[in-house]
Design a protein that fits this description.
Layout (H helix, E strand, L loop, with lengths): L7 E5 L4 H11 L3 E4 L1 H4 L12 H12 L7 E10 L20 H11 L9 E11 L5 E12 L15 E3 L11 H7 L1 H11 L3
Parallel strand pairs: 1-2, 1-3
Antiparallel strand pairs: 3-4, 4-5, 5-6
Helix pairs in contact: 1-6, 5-6
This protein binds inosine 5'-triphosphate.
Inosine 5'-triphosphate binds next to strand 3 and helix 4.
Length: 199
Amino acid sequence: MTEAKPKRLIVVATNNRHKLQEMQSILGSAWLVQGAGDVASGLTWEETGSTFRDNARIKINALKPYVKGCILADDSGLCVDALHGAPGVNSSSYGGIEGDHGRNVQRLLAHMRDVPDHERGAHFYCLILFLNERGEEEMFEGRCFGRISRQPSGQGGFGYDPVFIPDGYNLTMAEMSERDKNAISHRGRALTEFMKDRS
Ligand code: ITT
């Protein structure tokens, strides 16, 4: 009889439960994904960095005192061509209240109201920092290109998914199945790179 392989534990420096759920589903059953709340209840941090990498490092450092093993941090956001890359690193607080996805989307659509269809290009970006078993930092990136719709549509995903139409699709990311989103998303691509190094 073959023994089941033990799951590999990975602590992710996030308080975003949607992100955590996506990561568990992308990494698959060989991994057990835990969030910041599982190792340090109520832990928060200020994302004051001016780059995705700085913010990912802030997340890792916040968790370090509570975790003996590896830590993974994902800092991600939406970069809109017509807004010169905004909201970018400020994606989660763009509407004025941290993590208020509805306000973020409304502010984005207001800023894009007069932008014609052919200038509505955008991409999601994900940067992953992984603090490995030797205490070294590894970095992985993923991008997903598309365009901003004129109104929100769909109930899936989180954040800007209801207004982001990936290239090659006529659906917003919030209208796609979780599986389809994960196959093409910035996070899915960054995590695929991460897994390549440790299969
Ligand atoms: P943590 O910092 O706790 O991980 P967060 O939601 O603040 O949670 P980020 O700083 O990485 O995470 O993400 C910034 C924002 O970018 C996020 O709140 C969303 O508005 C947007 N975003 C990131 N990934 C997204 C995705 O897959 N779909 C839609 N919006 C996304």
